[in-house]
């Protein structure tokens, strides 16, 4: 105890590496300079206890909120003092695992003003918001409505007499519910509401509403605010609810870039704004990189712990074996690691495509929008689905200790699982992808050429021959892509044909669409796996690395491809992308790859280079001192500050004493 | 608000039921009288706020512990006053969702004395323990060791001079870590330690150790105790750690039924105790029924909520549709519901077999032990694996609200997930099953008849013809069992042959076993699916129900069988249990069954008859008033008791004010 030595069981792991982890660290950071900058920021931040994250597990929500607010305010002071670039700010937020109280102000409120306000409104609000005088959030979701925006119930009714808009949440189901930083932090919100003029609905629009007094932060008249209560994770965020009861705002507080309301009550709309879609896509692309961070953190903790945990033995009579030496443990952890790496490279490809689209859109070309929408929606849904699943596998691979919050992994899982729900619930997203695919396959079947992610739809299926002709072919990741492609094609085709049949048979659209809803999700998933594999391969090909690093990255990419074919083998057999012989080869290769990756496993997670404080995992620190740190963490539990709990005197003592007396 | 009307969207669901839910309720409870008794106990318990469970989400661990202790003490007073039968006590613990502080005393401490102590020791300890003068736990797991008992590091060294045993946890990794109720509640523990006599190790044995003073509950000399810290769930339980530093106990405190230590230091062992195995099996059988409770609670909350949540529409222009009407939602929830029902019937079969084995063992016949061990281990592992997975699907199907702890489902998931780890980590259990299967297939291949769960190993594979010859055959659950059987047989055979090959090729056992570890897990899983399906079918056949109830239960059983074939289709195709045509029929049938179960969905969860207080789910109550209850729960959050958080005055105010000043 108290020593700072490296656990020899993890030290020995670092001697078997076949590549230099620093090379990959630079790749992840975006260059050597960015790594240096990150380390500089980490050093500065973590020298201040306000930025330390790991002691939060015993705090009440109010204490946690207070500590997070202290961190947030300090952070934005530093940002101003040190004049951080946007890139620096992003880095800092990653370093503190996004644990601050004003995230919506930056991620939603400021961008929404930029996007939705007129120039005059921007001049009015942006300076105040940038100086944190206005602190805002974006209030859209209601207690009774999330996905279907058209049915939101909040109203903004124009009162011509006073030139004001009157906002109301008419029913309990209409109250705003979930917006981050709404409950306690924000003094302003952009509220999404139905504009009503002369008893006519004029669509959903954004309105700037003051929530709290600038003098003492108390709620404004007609406004009732609070937090929505304890969550499974992320309790540092004051996700809130908002009642609006005849709240009056000037007409000029409607954000009027895309639609205007005149003094006389005339409503003008300039139509849907493509920039809104671009923002939605941006967030989905961002989620792919958060997913990379979350899964690779969980893999880091689990793999490091598995290198110091010993249990039973593979060679009777010898010392207990490291659990990482068991094939079953490798089977849990290495596909998770490969999936984490996949998220990085997929995000890289997706992000580049997104940037290219933005440039095109600036010159008026929005042709890439539909594909980018389907692509980003699909990757967000697939990557979050598989990553959250693998994170839970990592957590359970740590046995009982993975259930302790000090292990960090349970908080990682609970913190990541909402990614499947937010910014487009995954099933809803798969259905959006499916809609795009149905259109594309219809094009392809009528002889039009499809391109990009659906280029494969031009395939002539009859000429397909499985590219895996001998076991060695299975290491060719391009061949694996072909299998994914074939599976996607056949699955899409089958569903499209079923829809066509149902349509032609005269069934009602509502009926046949619902009868095929799950097959539509399944076909979108098949497509997304193909895109993910293709993007991983392409992303990997696009980077410059030394041969030893390339070799191990290729193995991870191959494992990713093989693992999901083997796991979902039914789909590949059903679509005749391969036969039983190929399946057998792939099953053998999967186990072979586990053994090949084994010597590099700890170094592959070291390369991700999470700062111990960022990781906040007692079992996953660089030094491998899992037991010491678990014990130290337990000692901080408030119940361990006294020998005897008050509950003894209040209840237990009497039970014990009565037992003693009844003996007499 | 404040009204107690039933939400009409859930009321209408109860009008479409095709069977009487009360009939199934009686089945689950074990008869009409047991249902009446449960309702009587629920009424009595929940009239006392000490038994109410739902306000725990805002309590600190110390507050939660205190409330739980108050409940526990009250409970055991009632037990004594009202002279509850063991059956009543079990029922009460189920009603309060096992949320009490002395569970290990009943589930481990008392049974361990019964099983491991001599008659003389029983006379000494049992009366004290039954009167709650001694409150105990069972301390086995250490910080560094769980599964491999042989390597536990705690020692009990015999000191002949004083006729005492000296207990020590020599290293940090040796401290006892995890035992329930150890940290703060227990004043005694049965400690597992290596007996050391004359510097010789004499194996692991149980020792009765006093932990705390009977006068003031402070730790005894040489003992250091505490809780292990915040967990992902179950924080009402004071899972603890224990250091033993030269703790002296009389020699007579070694529990000596199965091994004795004489005054002269002579060690005598009567060999392994089969009753110990029976106890281990008992706990695994029990976990199957807890799994039933946990999954069916999650399904109840999710299905009820899905009947009152409306979102988007299936028929354009009409009212928003209930989310339960979407095929995708049914696909998430109904297989979960069917799996919950499966757990009930599987437990029923398993429990009857276990009771029969106990009777045999009393007359000296322990022949059934190896199969029961494999059977119970396999069902524990498979049912917890699939149930926890389905519970998380249920939780996510509730969108954002499923992330709120008030929804209850997040606590259900976090509370159930350790079932995969405790009482035999699932991977370890699958490997135990695999070992049994390897022995059995070797028998079968050498012409000996295998019986019971492995009877299928006598199969003549060449004469297998897929029993599904037309779509209608897929509803025959016995046919489905044959497919599961064929898949299990082929998978077991393949691995056994691989092991045989490796063995004959002269590879070291340690090497070839580890090279086949994951295939061994896979083959055990295949076997367990078959046993689960067979047990579900047999359990269902064994009960007397009316034709309408039988019809809907048959559908659930069929859905269970079909769902896992379709989900794991690769394994069934690979083992040639079916072909692509059969897969297609089964895929169609699965969707068809969702539609058929739809009208009964809410009634099928009503039949489980969870008391609202037991369920503790704001979104899952019988009345369907999800939004009202979510809002009411949020109002209880301590942060909502004031308009402005202290963090405003401490931090935020300055940030806002500085912003305002910099404007001047």
Name its key features.
6-stranded mixed β-sheet, 11 strands, Butyryl-CoA Dehydrogenase, subunit A, domain 3, 3-stranded antiparallel β-sheet, homodimer, alpha+beta, 9% strand, 22 helices, 664 residues, globular, Butyryl-CoA Dehydrogenase, subunit A, domain 2, 54% helix
Written description of the protein model:
2 copies of one chain form a homodimer. The first copy, chain A, is globular and about 90 Å long. The first copy, chain A, has 2 domains: 112-271, Beta Barrel (Butyryl-CoA Dehydrogenase, subunit A, domain 2), CATH 2.40.110.10; 278-604, Up-down Bundle (Butyryl-CoA Dehydrogenase, subunit A, domain 3), CATH 1.20.140.10. Chain A is an alpha+beta fold. In chain A, helix 10 packs antiparallel against helix 11 (409-416) and helix 15 packs antiparallel against helix 16. In chain A, 54% of the residues lie in helices and 9% in strands. The interface between A and B is large, with 135 and 135 residues.
Task: Describe the secondary-structure layout.
The structure is a homodimer of 664-residue chains.
Chain A: H1 8-11, H2 21-29, H3 32-46, H4 61-82, H5 86-95, H6 103-116, H7 119-130, E1 136-139, E2 155-159, E3 164-168, E4 176-177, E5 188-197, E6 200-210, E7 223-227, E8 240-244, E9 247-250, E10 259-261, E11 267-269, H8 274-308, H9 327-362, H10 369-397, H11 409-416, H12 426-445, H13 477-504, H14 509-515, H15 517-541, H16 547-567, H17 569-574, H18 580-597, H19 601-606, H20 612-615, H21 626-635, H22 646-663
Parallel strand pairs in A: 1-5, 2-5
Antiparallel strand pairs in A: 2-3, 3-9, 4-8, 5-6, 7-8, 10-11
